[in-house]
Amino acid sequence: MQLNWILKKFNELTPVELYRILQLRNEVFVLEQNCVYQDADDKDQLSLHFCGWDNEKLVAYTRIIPPGISYTEASIGRVVTSPVYRKTGAGRMLMQESISHTFSRFNCPVIKIGAQVYLTKFYQSLGFVQSSEPYLEDGIPHIEMILHK
After folding, report:
1. In this predicted structure, what is the pLDDT of residue 69?
2. Strand 74-81 and strand 110-116: pairing?
């Protein structure tokens, strides 16, 4: 599968791109995971947005957050792959490229994420290690994980 990968600042996103991002985040985080939460948290405007497109369809997305916003370290959040494109390798490609962009854009030695516990093995396969005890975020078990450059 050949996706078109695009990295943009918030103010570079077109209205259609922003709509597709919010639509995918709502589809997975609100509807699929049955989690009512405040998605608009004022971090989007400060972040980079990494998108994988299959023509006009947004397949995969992450929000790359500069150091000092979510954590002292740089972070990758709102990691999401369209249900239709799961098991295609799009999620792994998404994270590998997001990691690369995070290290290069922010010249940082560490990336810290808040990961849903059920995805621990996936993130470990990318080099992340658990750095906190489990905690609940919006009713879903999470752990903090870090990746050193």
Report:
1. 97
2. parallel
The β-bridge partners of 53 are: 4, 58
Residue count of the chain, please give it. 149
Residue 62 CA to residue 50 CA, distance in Å, equals 5
Residue 40 dihedral angles phi and psi, to the nearest 5°: -80, 95
Residue 103 and residue 111 in contact, taking contact as beta carbons nearer than 8 Å: yes
1-57 confidence digits (pLDDT tens): 799 999 999 999 999 999 999 999 999 988 888 878 788 899 999 999 999 999 999
Q: Tens digit of pLDDT for each residue in 54-112?
A: 999 999 999 999 999 999 999 999 999 999 999 999 999 999 999 999 999 999 999 99
Q: What is the 3-state secondary structure (H, E, C) of 67-79?
A: CCCCCCCEEEEEE
Q: What is the distance between the alpha carbons of residues 133 and 147, in angstroms, rounded to a whole number?
A: 16
* DSSP secondary structure string for all residues of 24-41: HHIIIIIIITT-------
Class of domain 4-108 (CATH, top level): alpha beta
Amino acid found at 121: K
